[in-house]
UniProtKB/TrEMBL annotation:
Source organism: Actibacterium lipolyticum
Keywords from the named record: ATP-binding, Cobalamin biosynthesis, Cytoplasm, Nucleotide-binding, Transferase
Pfam families hit by this protein: Cob_adeno_trans
Domain of life where this protein originates: Bacteria
GO process terms (BP): cobalamin biosynthetic process
Matches recorded under NCBIfam families: PduO_Nterm
Transmembrane helix listed as a keyword: no
Protein name: Corrinoid adenosyltransferase
GO cellular component, one term: cytoplasm
Pathway per the UniProt entry: Cofactor biosynthesis; adenosylcobalamin biosynthesis; adenosylcobalamin from cob(II)yrinate a,c-diamide: step 2/7
Domain Cobalamin adenosyltransferase-like, residue spans: 7-174
Similarity field: Belongs to the Cob(I)alamin adenosyltransferase family.
Claim: Amino-acid biosynthesis is one of the keywords in the record: no
E.C. no: 2.5.1.17
């Protein structure tokens, strides 16, 4: 169980932070940038939920929980030591990726195929979901960059890749199943 009884610790005042294994690293390290942007993605999902209800809200709540799992995964290096750990670290699983794929397929089946790129917008929920998409793409890029230098859980990258697709499909659903999508008109303002 997590117990937080003091918000500030002063341990980061010199520009370092602790990872999940206790190691201290610079706050601008690739690993901290990756899981920090996952946290930022989670905050954008919280904003989207202000406009969601029913099944969409429930799915977004599940994604928020997954994003905390992902942050915990990314803040814990040394995957090769997982088996020897007293408390095995939390890792994103292929089942979480597969759940996103199943939901994407279900949403996409209800949509007409696109004949144009769409602009982020339409309903308030769709606009927020497109913001979630772009922030999750940044988290993915930073996580892929981290993976070039350190070993990470491959399911973490897969999850982020599917997540941005999930947000795209959900944004279309939020726009009256795509009927209210805002279409890009190439060169419209020349």
């Amino acid at each position: 169980m997590v117990v937080i009884n003091k918000i500030y610790t002063k341990t980061g005042d010199a520009g370092e932070t602790a990872l999940g294994n206790g190691a201290r690293v610079a706050k601008h390290s690739a690993r901290v940038n990756a899981y920090g942007t996952v946290d930022e993605t989670n905050a954008t999902v919280g904003l989207a939920r202000l406009h969601a209800d029913g099944e969409m809200d429930a799915r977004l709540a599940a994604i928020q929980n997954d994003l905390f799992d992902l942050g915990a995964d990314l803040c814990r290096p040394d995957m090769e030591k997982d088996a020897d750990a007293e408390y095995p670290p939390l890792r994103v699983t292929s089942a979480q990726v597969e759940r996103l794929e199943t939901e994407i397929d279900a949403m996409t089946d209800a949509l007409e195929p696109l004949r144009s790129f769409i602009l982020p917008g339409g309903s308030a929920l769709a606009a927020q979901l497109h913001l979630c998409r772009t922030v999750s793409r940044r988290a993915e890029r930073l996580t892929v960059e981290l993976a070039t230098a350190e070993t990470i859980n491959p399911a973490a990258v897969k999850y982020l890749n599917r997540l941005s697709d999930w947000f795209f499909a959900a944004g279309r659903v939020a726009n009256n199943n795509g009927k209210d999508d805002v279409l890009w008109v190439p060169g419209a303002n020349r």
